[in-house]
């Protein structure tokens, strides 16, 4: 019996700055997890990962991360991915600084 496919998003790190980014449905890279394309088909997920891997001049380390549908777009399922959405943890800058004003 085969396992049911868990929805995914494609994530990577931006080559120049190192920021965590997510592949959107219109082939752009977003800093925001909720803007990622939620992929619910395994074959489509593999195609999207291949596309991401071809973006060597923009991103590095692309992989599929488990996600779930949320009210504002995809949400991370695992702690690691939730942690990655908040940015570096060593000092307050980037995404963390932006969240301080919310």
Automatic annotation (TrEMBL):
A Pfam family hit: DUF2849
Domain of life of the source: Bacteria
Residue ranges of the region described as Disordered: 71-102
Record-linked InterPro entries: DUF2849 (IPR021270)
Protein name, UniProt field: DUF2849 domain-containing protein
Annotated organism of origin: Fuscovulum blasticum DSM 2131
